[in-house]
Design goal:
The complex is a heterodimer. By secondary structure, chain A is mainly beta. Chain A has strands at residues 4-7, 10-14, 19-25, 30-38, 44-51, 56-59, 62-67, 72-77, 86-94, 100-102, 106-111. Chain A is built from no helices and 11 strands. Classes of the chains: A mainly beta, B mainly beta. Chains A and B meet through strand 4, strand 5, strand 9 and strand 10 of A and strand 4, strand 5 and strand 10 of B.
Chain lengths: 112, 113
């Protein structure tokens, strides 16, 4: 059974810092990995999708990497802003199934 | 089409009542998923449809839960005889095929009192 873990559970940084969020998964047989952002009481906004054959994806100040063999992904946020404050979730889609398995999320606060 | 739409956004119900939620996916998406999220946790898979066929159900989906997707368009999730433990955010997502990007709606927040 796939298990996804996100560390740290919460993170507080001053504005302008570069930061890294971590995601690990136990079963490396995945189709893809997706990073989401969730604001309090809201749904999920897709940030980046990395296919299993890819090593990284970039969108603006966000860069996500994938090391499938070691079961790890990182989300790098450059020059953080208060508007980046949210919960960040990673999710993997297994070869054997069709659902996404989510980690517990990292709650990020960027202080002005 | 602006994305996945869910209705209602919030629902407060008394224990024992039945509730029904609706999800309208992105129009060209053939896959539709339901997830449940409790406070401070990541979403957990409940069930998914490919077109009108319900292909998989989680063990979390007890007999009190039923989902439909008539004609492969919108979907409904019904919870019968609600319990306080059903209080959660119910999220709907859609995608084209099983390996493309999944898009989520804003969710329905259910509170059972």
């Amino acid at each position: 059974k796939q298990e996804v873990t996100q560390i740290p559970a919460a993170l507080s940084v001053p504005e302008g810092e570069n930061l890294v969020l971590n995601c690990s998964f136990t079963d490396s047989a995945i189709y893809n990995l997706q990073w989401f952002r969730q604001d309090p009481g809201k749904g999920l906004t897709s940030l980046l999708l990395i296919q299993s054959s890819q090593r990284e994806q970039t969108s603006g100040r966000l860069n996500a990497s994938l090391d499938k063999s070691s079961g790890r992904s990182t989300l790098y946020i450059a020059a953080s802003q208060p508007g980046d404050s949210a919960t960040y979730l990673c999710a993997v889609r297994n070869n054997a199934g069709n659902m996404l398995t989510f980690g517990g999320g990292t709650r990020l606060m960027v202080k002005p | 089409d602006t994305g996945v739409s869910q209705d209602p956004r919030h629902k407060i119900t008394k224990r024992g009542q039945n509730v029904t939620f609706r999800c309208d996916p992105i129009s060209e998406h053939n896959r539709l998923y339901w997830y449940r999220q409790t406070l401070g946790q990541g979403p957990e898979f409940l069930t998914y449809f490919q077109n009108e066929a319900q292909l998989e159900k989680s063990r979390l989906l007890s007999d009190r839960f039923s989902a439909e997707r008539p004609k492969g368009s919108f979907s409904t999730l019904e919870i019968q005889r609600t319990e306080q433990g059903d209080s959660a955010m119910y999220l709907c997502a859609s995608s084209f095929g099983g390996i493309t990007e999944a898009f989520f709606g804003q969710g329905t927040r259910l509170t059972v009192v």
